[in-house]
């Protein structure tokens, strides 16, 4: 679960720290993207999963482009990677963001009719034509399970079919509608992802025909599942790619847009044990840092996978042997829990605790100013 390079780093770096293994990421993204050997399918990466510059540089070597969801992400990515193709999505794009994006973005994923009208006006005054995919909110076929569904229900994301039809039939200057974008669920396995893509593609073909749009592009979104309970259970990219290949409508480029499943496995959050306590029959290991650095287990309601590494027992602090231990941080709130009741052979003050699957929606979603503890270090190996 921990690569040798990361193991070296956590033994020497000041902790708490995020440690990213760029070699691990490079191999993972290479394997993921090479599963899509059909030239009609392209892979974009959703930057919101992790904006770390070193990670983005590695990922950009393998993908067909990046999806940014704010003016901040757009400026950040452009300064790092001046030439990578970009799609600009996300609700609530401001006038300034739309204007700035016109000169540098390849595709706009437009979230509302009003946004399309504003984009049209800005494109006309800039003397350019913006290429647009209408982001739609469609019912999701029986995905069930652990999946988080955002489609077919009231949502601030995208347009429902009626609004999409109004936007498409508006015939605005300065914008060329080339297709449809749909990101409707997350936490899906390969068959569920393919079933979702299939219904989006069928809907998009019908929509194009009904609206007289020559459908050239459909972005079927991200949401490929990862399993925090079993880090070895990976999304089956080969199976998804094969299934998707069989679904590509003629004349259409299909894009997928994973975020989490791209970088989650290549980041670790490492810390050390400050105290070991018994309380009313429970055992707690209090770790340096906390969920203000690694908010993922709180937001997702899971136990973050971890290993304990014996390190420095010279302080003579307490320890516990062969017990279920709850790993917490330094925050004064009962929500500050990394993992509950994890069976450990032994944990002592001074040990290292290394949390895996911390490469996506981890540091960047955390409320790091809460309680004014120091920020974690960030180490790339
Ligand atoms: C967040 C997001 C993604 C990536 O989702 P993952 O679950 O991280 O794969 C892709 N597209 C859009 C529009 C998103 O908002």
From TrEMBL:
What does this protein need as cofactor? pyridoxal 5'-phosphate
Orn/DAP/Arg decarboxylase 2 C-terminal domain ranges (all copies): 18-359
Q: Which Gene3D superfamilies match?
A: Alanine racemase (3.20.20.10), Lyase, Ornithine Decarboxylase, Chain A, domain 1 (2.40.37.10)
Q: Where are residues bearing N6-(pyridoxal phosphate)lysine located in the sequence?
A: 48
Question: Residue ranges of the Orn/DAP/Arg decarboxylase 2 N-terminal domain?
Answer: 23-262
Report the leader peptide range.
Answer: none
Among the GO biological process terms of this entry, one is: lysine biosynthetic process via diaminopimelate
Supply the name of the protein: Diaminopimelate decarboxylase
Known SUPFAM superfamilies for this protein? Answer: Alanine racemase C-terminal domain-like, PLP-binding barrel
Superkingdom of origin: Bacteria
What's the family?
Belongs to the Orn/Lys/Arg decarboxylase class-II family.
The residues responsible for catalysis, as annotated, are 332 (proton donor)
Q: Which GO terms describe its molecular function?
A: diaminopimelate decarboxylase activity
Question: What keywords tag this UniProt record?
Answer: Pyridoxal phosphate
């Amino acid at each position: 679960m921990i690569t040798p390079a990361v193991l070296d780093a956590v033994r020497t770096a000041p902790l708490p720290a995020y440690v990213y293994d760029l070699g691990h990421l490079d191999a993972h993204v290479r394997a993921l993207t090479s599963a899509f050997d059909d030239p009609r399918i392209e892979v974009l990466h959703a930057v919101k999963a992790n904006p770390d510059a070193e990670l983005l540089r590695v990922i950009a070597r393998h993908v067909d482009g990046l999806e940014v969801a704010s003016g901040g992400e757009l400026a950040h990515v452009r300064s790092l990677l001046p030439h990578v193709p970009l799609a600009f999505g996300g609700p609530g794009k401001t006038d300034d963001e739309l204007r700035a994006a016109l000169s540098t973005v390849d595709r706009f994923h437009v979230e509302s009719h009003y946004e399309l009208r504003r984009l049209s006006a800005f494109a006309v005054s800039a003397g350019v034509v913006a290429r647009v995919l209408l982001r739609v909110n469609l019912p999701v076929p029986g995905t069930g399970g652990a999946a988080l569904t955002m489609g077919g229900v009231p949502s601030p994301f995208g347009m429902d079919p009626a609004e999409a039809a109004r936007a498409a039939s508006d015939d605005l200057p300065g914008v060329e509608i080339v297709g449809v974008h749909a990101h409707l669920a997350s936490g899906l396995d390969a068959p569920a992802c393919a079933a979702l893509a299939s219904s989006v593609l069928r809907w998009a073909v019908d929509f194009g025909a009904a609206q007289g749009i020559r459908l050239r592009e459909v972005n079927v979104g991200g949401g490929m599942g990862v399993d925090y309970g079993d880090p070895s259970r990976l999304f089956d990219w080969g199976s998804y790619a094969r299934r998707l290949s069989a679904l590509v409508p003629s004349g259409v480029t299909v894009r997928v847009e994973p975020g989490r499943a791209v970088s989650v496995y290549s980041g670790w959050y490492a810390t050390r044990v400050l105290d070991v306590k018994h309380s009313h029959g429970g055992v707690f290991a209090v770790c340096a840092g906390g969920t203000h650095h690694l908010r993922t287990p709180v937001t997702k309601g899971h136990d973050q996978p971890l290993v304990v590494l014996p390190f420095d027992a010279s302080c003579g602090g307490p320890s516990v042997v062969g017990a279920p231990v709850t790993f917490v941080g330094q925050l004064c709130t009962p929500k500050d829990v990394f993992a509950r009741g994890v069976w450990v052979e032994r944990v002592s003050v001074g040990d290292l605790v290394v949390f895996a699957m911390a490469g996506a929606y981890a540091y960047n979603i955390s409320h790091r100013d809460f309680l004014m503890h120091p920020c974690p270090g960030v180490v790339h190996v």
